[in-house]
Design goal:
The chain is mainly alpha-helical and 204 residues long. The chain has two domains: 1-96, RNA polymerase sigma factor, region 2, helix turn helix motif (Rna Polymerase Sigma Factor, Chain: A), CATH 1.10.1740.10; 104-204, Arc Repressor Mutant, subunit A (Orthogonal Bundle). It has ten helices and no strands. It has helices at 3-6, 10-19, 23-42, 45-61, 73-91, 109-114, 126-144, 149-158, 163-170, 174-203. Helix 8 crosses helix 10 (174-203).
Length: 204
C-alpha cells in the first residue's frame, strides 16, 4: 500500500478522529519542533531526526490510547519524544530506529529482525513466542515492500547505514532518502498491525 492510500486507511481515520487533524498536517506542524526539542536533549542532529520520526510512528501506532480530554496531542507527542530521547541517552546506542516498542511486552522491530533463530529451549516464554512470530511477519513485509522503500529500509534498518551513506550510494539527495525511510517505516507499521493484533489475541 502506498503512502497516499495509507492516508485514507482506517488507521488514518482513527488518527484524525482522535486529534481533529490528519496525520500529515500534524507531522508538518510538529516535526521541525520535535527535532529542535530532541536535539536539545541528545545534542546529536541525526539522532534527533531519528527520534522525531519514531515519535510520530509510535503516536500513530498507539493512537487508540490517546485521550484528548487528558492532554493535548502536542503534549502527548512531545512526551513520547522525551521518553525516546532519554532512552537513547541511557542506552547510548547509535540508533533507536529498531528500538521503539511495538507492544506492552516491550517487543521492538529489532526483535522482529533478529530473534527468529530457532534455537529456543523448552522453557520459551509466550513473550518470546510472540516475538518469533512477529519476526517472521516483519521480515515478510520488509521483503515485500515496494521500491524505493524496500532498498532504503534494508540499508537503514538492517545494514544500519548512515543516511548520508545511503544517499551517496544511491545517488539520491539526503532529504529524499530521509523521506523514503520515514514513509517506509509508516507503511510497515500499517501493514503489520492486523497480523500483530491477531497474534496478540492468541496469547491474551
Amino acid at each position: 500500500m502506498e503512502l497516499k492510500a495509507f492516508m485514507f486507511s482506517e488507521k488514518a481515520e482513527i488518527f484524525k478522529e482522535k486529534t481533529g487533524k490528519d496525520f500529515l498536517t500534524l507531522y508538518t506542524k510538529y516535526y521541525p519542533k520535535l527535532i529542535y526539542f530532541t536535539n536539545k536533549i541528545c545534542n546529536d542532529m541525526q539522532k534527533a531526526e531519528d527520534i522525531s520520526t519514531e515519535s510520530f510512528i509510535v503516536a500513530l501506532d498507539k493512537i487508540d490510547r490517546y485521550k484528548k480530554e487528558k492532554a493535548q496531542f502536542s503534549t502527548w507527542l512531545f512526551t513520547i519524544a522525551k521518553n525516546l530521547s532519554l532512552q537513547e541517552l541511557k542506552t547510548g546506542k547509535k540508533s533507536i530506529s529498531l528500538d521503539v516498542e511495538y507492544d506492552e511486552d516491550g517487543t521492538t522491530m529489532k526483535d522482529f529482525i533478529t530473534k527468529d533463530n530457532g534455537d529456543e529451549d523448552s522453557s520459551i516464554t509466550s513473550t518470546r513466542e510472540i516475538a518469533v512470530k512477529k519476526s517472521k511477519i516483519m521480515k515478510k513485509y520488509m521483503k515485500d515492500l515496494k521500491e524505493p522503500y524496500k532498498t532504503v529500509i534494508d540499508m537503514r534498518e538492517v545494514k544500519k547505514m548512515a543516511y548520508k551513506d545511503i544517499a551517496n550510494e544511491l545517488g539520491i539527495n539526503l532529504s529524499t532518502i530521509k523521506s523514503q525511510i520515514r514513509n517506509g517505516r509508516i507503511l510497515l507499521i500499517d501493514q503489520t498491525k492486523s497480523e500483530f493484533d491477531e497474534i496478540d489475541k492468541l496469547y491474551l
